[in-house]
């Protein structure tokens, strides 16, 4: 059965191609009947899993028997065995031909072709008469199916040769020349009787190779032709003679003059659109049709009568609107699942309830099927549908159902038709998360069963005709128990459908009128099922392929059958032979959570379509499992090239050897030949809102700005942006009879036909009114635009404006000129003065200035580029011109900064001076007298340039003056802004500016009584800029010494401990047992003096966040209740700090506090908050927080949702922005406001990200095993560079733009180095012994303990050594921990523990760490060892206060004996001043927690819940005993 012939019948008669005289029209051709040999590496562990492909022991044995009998010359017994294989309805894998994939039918044919003369004679005598009879009937009845049967079964007979040649001629005359050439080449190479068809057979093959472009093979065929004709004339079948080429003449040049060139683009044009992507190759284009700004008609797919008659049902339209808005904001690739088809004058659409037929011209309902979706009706009744909190994220079963149907379920959304019947897949079920646990293994319409139904309805009436499928054993003849993977491919009297039963994929070839089986072919067996009903198989479910909408594609006699499970199979449709398979390993194994995951919230498939595209002799596969784009040879499955998906969503079209790829923010072209980029750069576009359609040489693409883009296929030029006047976005496009039709999640719209627009032009042209004449010219211009004729279009639109200018004409003209200017700046540069007056809104102005700035920049005209960047910065809506949506987003000011950054990187010294001069002039002429707002706007756009330092200094002056007279409520806001500007000046390369900013910041911190932070800044002044004049005419050293000598400063910054030097006195049982239900909030990562050893906790009522210093002194209280922040039911939380900002992470939500510039009531200022779970807060939200890492600086708190999916991390925090991950999005938000500055898509959920204001560095989880990091610009998030670590190097810690790594062992040493990831330079590096252990401290320190006991502490930023002391030799150090307080470093050296009999130890709480080893105390000021002592089997609790005079240790002792007194606890208290032991005892407690409560007034420390009081007063004061309650 040859599918290639069927394809020609879909083509308009005028496009069919004929052979007449010497004029031959051919298309692409490659040899057929080849076998794809798949590498063993395609499967895990190198295993060639032939057991997953169809095999037959019976036919394999018959094949082996036949070979043996033929070797014995027993032809009468052996040949019938081979013929039985050819007659068999299915093909199988030949398991005896070595490793690889081989067709058993092909093997049988090879045996027949290799028969000796006696064997061939027997075969001819035995089967020739039957073949002759079938050939005669085929000719008499003009029956191509019979002709195919002769070729399939009796190819090696004379009738078989005649049938092959005749069938090839049938395809040849209709333009399907690759199919014809495939038959003829097989005939020429494999049949002894091909000589009877010479020389015409060879001549046709030569022409075919010529048009294919394979000039070498064409030359070979022509040389063979010359030999067969003895170099004389070639005589065509009609008797016409042509002189052959002469000796020395180029044969191919001779042939080119004879046959010319071909243009078969018209053959792809479809008058109807009866299946997905238009034709069997999936590369169709539509007859000429155009979009119009106002649709001709609209039809709702939601407002069914039965819904409108029931007011108690949920508001579906509102729900879908919220679902769609939410998805488009948070996800990329949000496209409708349903695509309409057009058959004649009927548009057939899928609604949520049933199928409906609409009139193409009017949009009126013609019919609807009586078969409705029972699942949909059941979902409407579900009591769980109530959701008062619903704001867009799918939570209830109905919301999940609607999400899957509207945007994910292509199996339901795709339809097909043969012009008489329409075919759809029904009863597919849906995956509803944990909603389905209780319904598993039940025959319920709500269950995701392993079966569905394929149904056929009449196109004209919607009348039901037949159905297949249904529950298992209901009707075995009609494929009960089968799951149809998508609608069938209808082609010339047959349906080709893909179905699955029990993990086995099958191709079903059906009669479209009755649904009866014509033939079938088993394809592949998956590792994972799609459902668990009627089976005990408990493998993880692959639920995604239930909704991929898989259908075969066909061209040139080859069926390409995708399975959605990592395997695609090619089948010869004439011989029914398995040609090839393409398999690939699954990147990530499917987990048991997959069947119940919240896949409705994300695009788990990656690609937005899965239909194989066939282009000539190539097939393009969009791989779901490999997430790549593959190009294979159509006839043998050989991989030609492959490239990663990146962010591509689908293939728009294949045009002139280029593949047009659509992504969430761009469209670009790849070369079909090798997959490399075909255009110099990608064309930026808004995110697509639907799949587009090719109309001649133009691609119409709907986008989420409410427009339809008209894109020229040759070069990607956007010809027009048609703004559609509808309340909803345009969805997937189809076309028929010159009309475009689109369907989204709620409605179908039909656009005006090209014929009606032409008629409108005719009528308007006859009018004398200028408005009508202008309208006619405008419409002509639009039609020229849509057809790709830019020159004529501009002339007509310009003429329309001259007659009577309108906003519509000006907008269209300006849009076109902007696109042309952007596309070819040099050609249209002269038109700039004409464009600017025609710009109608700020969006066009912004685009105009962007084009000018970037192009002038690339041409080296820096002055013009900078002028246009500044014009762009002066636009009114600079910070609110775009809304953040799924995909890439960059705010305009950040885009300007990124371009200026690029400008500075590429500038030479002369250009840098030109830039400095330009901004100096601009400052003098525009900014010197500017106000605060104008200065801030300028710096947001250009503040990353050194030349803008003057403007920042001026802004600091303006803010300082306003701060002096501001009200107390506004002072904190102004001071915050001032400190931000000063922090950015601190990073200036100018010593004067940097020292000035440092001095001013120190001054502010002193005024706020933050002496520790001020002291650090003053030390920086003394060391970095001692002689630089920085403030009030004083140098850095003078400013620092002036403050440091101030008595009040000395008193505050060097105050003695509030705790007396007396030894602690221990008292017990003086008070009742305390209660502590507070939740710890640990500060992780690096810190600064403002937060050193601070402790945070959520109060007992979960309404307040409390802060204490290292000695337990309360600092501030923040009301969580007033801020509307809910505290999850988790035992601990984390926080990170930057300067004076505190970022508290509650897992599901984080918030940013300014702890210095507080509100008037003393509370920290809440700057902003952000949820880490997509959607609004909900009672259904559930998270779990996991804590890992030894030291606080290395600690990580991982948050997972109810499906164990990891939520995003908080990354870099710097003076300009905070980076966080939300789903697959990396977002940079303004540190002070939370406004999104830029956003990037495509991150794995478990990515790490760090960096500074200039660069953000990404590292994925895979990168930890394959160390690799990507550097992105901090201005706009674009990738700047990518690095891999040296072989053997491992990442230890990352901060700002630096990465600490450890090299591989070499001569008993390892190299520890800090690398700048932006410059790829080593900051510091030194060797350590391979047995040296190391850890990090929170104050930028790295501590190392060598085997000989040497303890050294270095500065993490510079590598300079701060401390080195000698401890006890420790050859078996297990790990090291560094803690510190104001006076000392505490180095914990963990050693192996000798296990005692019948005693084990457990942590006392979830925030404590088990420890056994030496504890060293080192003076921070002198670097001397203060004391050391051994701690045996203890636990360190990180929630205690480290600036107290004592440290408490506790560990739970487990002895295997249950007691009524609670857990046995080994408690130990060490005096940190001298290392003496204050207390050591074993006690009991029913509470798995220890907490320390200092009383600064009484100089007491309470250790709870053990009722122990440590008194530091002299003489000690005894507390009164608690009074017993009266009996």
Describe this protein with a few key phrases.
disordered N terminus; alpha+beta; five-stranded antiparallel beta sheet; Methylamine Dehydrogenase, Chain H; 1527 residues; single chain; eight-stranded mixed beta sheet
Overall description:
It is a single chain. The protein has 35 helices and 78 strands. Strand 25 and strand 26 (639-644) form a beta hairpin. The radius of gyration is 39 Å and the shape is globular. 28% of the residues lie in helices and 27% in strands. The strands form 20 sheets. The protein has an eight-stranded mixed beta sheet with strand order 45-44-43-42-46-47-48-49. Strands 14, 15, 16, 17 and 18 form a five-stranded antiparallel beta sheet that branches. A five-stranded antiparallel beta sheet has the order 38-55-54-53-52. 49% of the residues are buried. The protein starts with a helix and ends in a 16-residue tail after the last strand. With 1527 residues, it is of the alpha+beta class. Among the domains are: 41-175, no CATH class; 267-752, Methylamine Dehydrogenase, Chain H (7 Propeller), CATH 2.130.10.10; 826-1053.
């Amino acid at each position: 059965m040859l599918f290639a012939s069927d394809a020609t019948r879909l083509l308009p008669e005028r496009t069919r191609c004929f052979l007449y005289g010497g004029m031959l029209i051919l298309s692409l051709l490659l040899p057929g009947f080849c076998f794809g040999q798949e590498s063993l590496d395609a499967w895990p562990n190198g295993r060639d899993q032939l057991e997953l492909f169809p095999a037959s022991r019976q036919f394999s044995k018959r094949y082996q028997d036949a070979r043996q009998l033929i070797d014995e010359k027993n032809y009468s017994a052996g040949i019938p065995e081979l013929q039985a294989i050819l007659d068999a309805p299915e093909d199988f894998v030949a398991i005896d031909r070595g490793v690889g994939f081989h067709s058993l039918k092909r093997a049988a044919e090879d045996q027949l072709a290799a028969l000796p003369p006696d064997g061939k004679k027997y075969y001819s005598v035995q089967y020739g008469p039957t073949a002759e009879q079938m050939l005669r009937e085929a000719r008499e009845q003009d029956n191509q199916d019979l002709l195919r049967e002769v070729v399939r079964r009796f190819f090696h007979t004379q009738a078989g040769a005649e049938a092959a040649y005749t069938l090839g001629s049938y395809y040849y005359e209709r333009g399907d020349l690759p199919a014809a050439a495939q038959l003829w080449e097989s005939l020429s190479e494999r049949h002894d009787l091909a000589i009877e068809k010479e020389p015409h057979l060879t001549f046709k093959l030569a022409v075919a190779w010529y048009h294919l472009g394979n000039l070498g093979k064409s030359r070979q065929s022509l040389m063979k032709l010359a030999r067969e004709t003895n170099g004389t004339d070639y005589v065509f079948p009609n008797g016409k003679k042509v002189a052959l080429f002469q000796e020395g003449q180029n044969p191919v040049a001779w042939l080119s003059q004879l046959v010319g060139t071909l243009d078969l683009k018209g053959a792809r044009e479809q008058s109807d659109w009866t299946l997905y992507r238009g034709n069997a190759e999936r590369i169709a284009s539509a007859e000429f049709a155009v979009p119009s700004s106002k649709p001709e008609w609209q039809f709702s797919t939601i407002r069914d009568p039965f819904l409108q008659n029931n007011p108690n049902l949920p508001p579906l339209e509102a729900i879908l609107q919220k679902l769609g808005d939410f998805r488009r904001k948070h996800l990329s690739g949000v496209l409708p699942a349903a695509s309409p088809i057009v058959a004649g004058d009927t548009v057939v659409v899928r609604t949520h309830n049933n199928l409906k037929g609409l009139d193409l011209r009017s949009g009126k309902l013609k019919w609807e099927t009586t078969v409705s979706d029972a699942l949909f009706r059941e979902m409407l009744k579900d009591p769980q549908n109530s959701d008062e909190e619903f704001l867009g994220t799918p939570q209830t079963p109905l919301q999940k159902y609607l999400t899957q149907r509207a945007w994910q379920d292509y199996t339901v959304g795709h339809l097909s038709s043969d012009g008489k019947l329409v075919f759809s897949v029904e009863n597919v079920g849906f995956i509803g998360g944990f909603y389905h646990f209780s319904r598993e293994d039940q025959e319920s319409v709500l269950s995701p069963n392993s079966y569905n139904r394929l149904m056929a309805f009449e196109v004209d009436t919607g009348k039901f005709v037949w159905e297949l499928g249904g529950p298992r054993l209901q009707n075995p003849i009609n494929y009960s128990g089968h799951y149809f993977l998508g609608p069938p491919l209808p082609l010339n009297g047959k349906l080709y459908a893909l179905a699955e039963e029990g993990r086995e994929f099958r191709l079903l070839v059906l009669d479209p009128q009755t649904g009866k089986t014509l033939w079938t072919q088993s394809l592949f067996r998956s590792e994972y099922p799609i459902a668990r009903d009627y089976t005990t198989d408990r493998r993880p479910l692959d639920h995604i392929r239930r909704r991929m909408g898989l259908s075969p594609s066909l061209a040139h006699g080859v069926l390409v059958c995708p399975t959605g499970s990592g395997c695609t199979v090619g089948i010869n449709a004439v011989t029914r032979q398995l040609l090839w398979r393409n398999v690939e390993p699954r990147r990530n194994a499917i987990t048991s959570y997959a069947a119940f995951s919240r896949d409705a919230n994300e695009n788990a498939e990656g690609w937005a379509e899965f239909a194989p595209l066939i282009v000539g002799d190539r097939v393009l596969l969009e791989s779901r499992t490999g997430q790549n784009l593959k190009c294979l040879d159509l006839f043998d499955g050989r991989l030609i090239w492959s490239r990663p998906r990146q962010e591509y969503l689908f293939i728009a079209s294949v045009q002139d050897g280029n593949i047009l790829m659509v992504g969430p923010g761009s469209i670009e072209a790849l070369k079909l030949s090798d997959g490399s980029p075909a255009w110099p750069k990608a064309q930026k576009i808004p995110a697509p809102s639907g799949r587009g359609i090719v109309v001649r040489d133009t691609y119409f693409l709907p986008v989420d700005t409410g427009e339809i883009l008209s894109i020229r296929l040759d070069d990607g030029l956007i010809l027009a942006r048609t703004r559609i006047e509808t309340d909803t976005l345009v969805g997937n496009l189809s076309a028929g009879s010159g009309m475009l039709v689109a369907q989204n999640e709620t409605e179908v719209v039909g656009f005006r036909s090209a014929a009606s627009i032409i008629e409108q032009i005719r009528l308007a042209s006859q009018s004398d009114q200028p408005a009508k004449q202008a309208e006619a010219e405008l419409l002509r211009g639009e039609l020229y635009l849509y057809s790709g004729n830019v020159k004529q279009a501009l002339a007509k639109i310009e003429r329309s404006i001259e007659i009577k200018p309108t906003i519509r004409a000006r907008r269209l003209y300006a849009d076109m000129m902007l696109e042309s200017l952007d596309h070819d700046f040099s050609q249209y540069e002269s038109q700039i003065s004409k464009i600017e007056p025609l710009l109608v809104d700020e969006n066009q102005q912004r685009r105009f200035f962007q084009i000018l700035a970037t192009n002038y920049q690339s041409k080296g005209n820096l002055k013009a580029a900078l002028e246009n960047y500044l014009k762009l910065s002066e636009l009114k809506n600079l910070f609110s011109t775009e809304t953040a949506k799924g995909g890439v987003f960059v705010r305009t000011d950040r885009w300007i900064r990124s371009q200026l950054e690029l400008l500075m990187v590429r500038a030479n010294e002369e250009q840098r001076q030109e830039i400095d001069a330009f901004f100096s002039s601009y400052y003098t002429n525009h900014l010197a007298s500017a106000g605060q707002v104008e200065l801030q706007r300028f710096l947001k756009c250009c503040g990353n340039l050194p030349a803008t330092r003057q403007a920042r200094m001026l802004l600091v002056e303006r803010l300082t003056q306003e701060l002096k007279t501001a009200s107390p409520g506004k002072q904190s806001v102004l001071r915050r802004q001032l400190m931000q500007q000063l922090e950015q000046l601190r990073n200036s390369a100018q010593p004067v500016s940097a020292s000035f900013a440092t001095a001013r910041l120190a001054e502010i911190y002193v005024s706020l009584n933050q002496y520790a932070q001020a002291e650090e800044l003053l030390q920086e002044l003394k060391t970095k800029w001692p002689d630089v004049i920085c403030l009030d005419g004083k140098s850095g050293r003078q400013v620092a010494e002036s403050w440091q000598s101030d008595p009040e400063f000395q008193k505050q910054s060097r105050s003695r401990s509030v705790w007396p030097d007396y030894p602690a006195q221990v008292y017990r049982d003086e008070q009742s047992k305390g209660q502590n239900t507070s939740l710890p909030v640990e500060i992780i990562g690096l810190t600064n003096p403002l937060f050193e050893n601070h402790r945070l906790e959520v109060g007992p009522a979960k309404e307040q966040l409390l802060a204490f210093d290292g000695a337990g002194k309360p600092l501030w209280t923040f009301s969580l209740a007033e801020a509307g922040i809910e505290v999850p039911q988790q035992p601990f939380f984390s926080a990170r700090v930057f300067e004076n900002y505190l970022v508290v992470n509650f897992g599901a939500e984080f918030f940013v506090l300014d702890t210095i510039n507080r509100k008037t009531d003393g509370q920290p200022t809440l700057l902003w908050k952000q949820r880490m779970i997509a959607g609004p807060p909900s009672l259904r939200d559930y998270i779990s927080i996991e804590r890992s890492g030894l030291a606080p600086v290395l600690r990580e708190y991982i948050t997972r949702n109810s499906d164990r999916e990891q939520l995003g991390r908080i990354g870099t925090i710097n003076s300009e922005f905070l980076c966080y991950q939300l789903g697959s999005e990396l977002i940079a938000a303004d540190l002070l406001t939370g406004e999104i500055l830029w956003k990037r898509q495509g991150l794995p959920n478990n990515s790490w990200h760090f960096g500074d204001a200039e660069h953000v560095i990404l590292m994925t989880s895979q990168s930890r095993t394959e160390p690799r990091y990507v550097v992105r610009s901090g201005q706009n998030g674009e990738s700047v560079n990518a690095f891999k670590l040296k072989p053997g190097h491992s990442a230890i810690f990352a901060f700002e733009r630096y990465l600490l790594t450890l090299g591989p062992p070499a001569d008993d040493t390892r190299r520890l180095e800090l690398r700048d990831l932006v410059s790829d330079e080593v900051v510091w590096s030194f060797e350590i012994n391979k047995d040296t252990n190391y850890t990090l401290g929170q104050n930028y320190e790295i501590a190392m303990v060598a085997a000989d006991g040497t303890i050294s502490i270095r500065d993490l930023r510079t590598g300079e050594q701060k401390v080195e002391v000698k401890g006890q030799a420790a050859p078996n150090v297990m790990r090291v921990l560094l803690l510190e307080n104001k006076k000392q470093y505490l180095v914990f050296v963990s050693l192996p523990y000798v296990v005692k009999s019948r005693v084990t130890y457990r942590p006392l709480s979830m925030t404590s760490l088990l420890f056994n080893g030496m504890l060293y105390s080192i003076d921070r000021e002198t670097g001397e060892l203060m004391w050391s002592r051994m701690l045996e089997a203890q636990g360190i609790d990180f929630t205690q206060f480290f600036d107290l005079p004592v440290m408490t240790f506790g560990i739970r002792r487990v002895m295997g004996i249950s007691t009524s007194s609670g857990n046995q606890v080994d408690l130990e208290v060490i005096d940190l001043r001298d290392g003496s032991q204050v207390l050591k005892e074993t006690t009991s407690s029913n509470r798995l927690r220890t907490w320390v409560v200092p009383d600064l007034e009484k100089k007491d420390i309470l250790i709870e819940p053990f009722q122990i009081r440590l008194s530091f007063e002299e003489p000690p004061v005894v507390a009164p005993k608690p009074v017993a309650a009266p009996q």
